[in-house]
Structure formats: structure tokens, C-alpha cells
Amino acid sequence: MHLKKVFSVLFITIAMLGIGKVSAQNADERKSEVNKLVVLWTSDDPYVAERVALMYTHAAKTAKWFDEVDLIIWGPSAKLTAENLKIQEKLKAMQKDGVTIEACIVCAKAYQVVDDLKGLGFEVKGMGKPLSGHFKNEKAKVLTF
């Protein structure tokens, strides 16, 4: 009877290890499927923009950490973009390197910068639905600054 218990415990342990291995493999497979980064940039702080949000976003594209990298200008970052030449230059370089840059039309209207953002070559449109789609997309990661 004791031997039967030992075999049962051994069998359960082996089965659990196998499940753990499959779970780890599934996690690795999911990780490798994530190939898109969407950065939601909301801050009007130029230091956060230059030294965090834009720096990481640009590096993620140029270092090929993600195949696709999108930057969404949302809220106060729209006004900062329209007013700050250094930020504009950085965004142009990012765009040249393949980062897709979009801006929220509602935010741009609120700050009266629609024409400024369009003039910089950024698509200005309704972003609520596209952003929600990014949140639901298992192959994308959304990061907010």
C-alpha cells in the first residue's frame, strides 16, 4: 500500500513538472508573438519626453526590440510637441527611422494645435477606438508615459 502511495505522488509530481514545462513554453511562445509596441505619450514634461518616452520609443524601433513601434500623442503632449522645436526634431528623426506617429484629434483641438501637428507630418485623428484596439491586441504591448 505504501509503495502505491509513493508511485502516485511520483506520478503526480512528474505530471506537474510536465504541465509547468508546457506553461513555460506557452509563455515563451506568447512572448515571441508580441511584435508591436504602442507608446501612449501623455506628459507635457519635456524631460519625461526627451529622457524617457521618446528615447525608449526610438530605441525600441532602431534596436529592433519590436517590429512595429507606434507613438500616440495624447493630451498635454500635443501642446508640448507644437511648442518645442527640440521635441519636433526628435519626433521627425523617429518618424524617419520607422516609428509611426499619430495624434489624438480631440486633444489637438483642445490645445488648438491641429494644424501644427499635421504640419509636422503626423496623422491627427480620433484615437479612442484605435487605442482600445491596441489594448485588446495580444500581439501588442501598450506603454504609457
Describe the model.
Helices cover 62% and strands 17% of the residues. The relative contact order is 0.17. The chain is built from 7 helices and 5 strands; from the N terminus they run H-E-H-E-H-H-E-H-H-E-H-E. Helix 2 (46-62) runs parallel beside helix 4 (85-96). A 5-stranded parallel β-sheet has the order 4-3-2-1-5, with helices on both faces. The protein is of the alpha/beta class. It has 2 domains: 1-33; 34-144, Hypothetical Protein Ychn, Chain: A. It has helices at 2-33, 46-62, 76-83, 85-96, 105-110, 114-119, 128-136, and strands at residues 36-41, 68-73, 100-104, 123-125, 140-144. The radius of gyration is 22 Å and the shape is globular.
Question: What keywords describe this structure?
Answer:
2 domains, alpha/beta, 5-stranded parallel beta sheet, Hypothetical Protein Ychn, Chain: A, 145 residues, 7 helices
With strands numbered from the N-terminus, the spatial order across the biggest sheet is 4-3-2-1-5
Distance between the termini: 61 Å
| Poorly predicted tracts of residues | 6-17, 19-25
Percent of residues in helices comes to 55-70%
Rg on CA atoms, Å:
22 Å
> In CATH, what is the class of the largest domain?
Alpha Beta
The major β-sheet equals: 5 strands, parallel
- CATH H level of the largest domain: which superfamily? DsrEFH-like
Mean pLDDT: 86
CATH topology type of the largest domain = Hypothetical Protein Ychn, Chain: A
Helix-strand pattern: HEHEHHEHHEHE
What is the oligomeric state here?
A: single chain
| Shape assignment | globular
Domain tally: 2
The CATH architecture of the largest domain would be 3-Layer(aba) Sandwich
Number of helices: 7
Strand content: 15-25%
